[in-house]
Amino acid sequence: MIEDEKIKEIQQNTYSGTDKFESKENILNTSKLKSIIKLLRPDHYIKNLFVFAPLFFVFKFSVDSITNTLISFATFSLIASSIYILNDLNDIEEDRLHPKKKHRPLASKKISKKMALIIMAVLSITSLTGAFIYNTNLFYVLAFYFVMNIAYTFKLKQIPIVDVFIVAAGFVMRLMAGAVVTDITLSKWIVIITFLLAVFLALAKRRDDVILSSESNLMRKSIGGYNLEFINASMILMSGIVIISYILYTVSPDVLERLNTQYLYLTAFFVILGILRYMQITFVEQKSGNPTKLVLKDRFLQLTIFSWLVSFELIINFLVG
Fold this sequence. Notes:
Blueprint: H1 2-40, H2 53-58, H3 63-90, H4 92-95, H5 113-134, H6 136-154, H7 162-180, H8 188-216, H9 228-251, H10 253-259, H11 268-283, H12 291-297, H13 299-318
Helix pairs in contact: 3-5, 3-6, 3-7, 5-6, 6-7, 7-8, 8-9, 9-11, 11-13
């Protein structure tokens, strides 16, 4: 009896040790998976919603067009994630000195460089191959975006002004990715306004980088040639140009004829409101470092964007003539 009890005790201890080991292994696997997901920056996929813009502005919704755009969104998200990884690999040492970016998977050493390179290769190959099989025009757009951002990562982001223009061009590429899979001809107005708005947002992000660098006395290569005075003036200039461009778009003869409404100018109210709110966040609250997180968290901005979307669609569908 005594020997049987000892055997049971040994077995229980063995099972307990095994359970603890498996539990620890599961925790490590979960932590690794979370780090990989964070490395991909899925929260930034909100930028890729711009591929749906061509559908929105022509109100050309059908099963085929939506399916094609979803595929475009998916492939663009994969190629964008591969670029995020490349950027993190290139900036790993600088990120370790940054108060916020030091927590990124590569900078914090939660993900090895080798693993990051493998993930990047898988994502880029999958995206480009899938695009080539599905739509060659989409492949050309993604390939150009990929090459452009490789150049940006290693050189162009160190050239002031050019860097924000490259970021803005990336948003135009998103528009093109949505247009080529739906056979929609992009309006010159939409391309111009998207580019100008993206420049405005990129400047706001650079402003945050300049402030952080001045506070920590660490100068990042990507902000050489910028200071607060220049960025503040540039943002004010770009905000005015964006608003004027949008108003001109809403009253342009070709848009009035194509959408068959004279009331689109009313939606400018929400555009102005959104721009002013973003400037308030930037200049008053000093929180312009991550435009994506701002859109995801700021209720004022969310309500403004939603109101603009709804008013735009209501006007072109019901206030005709």
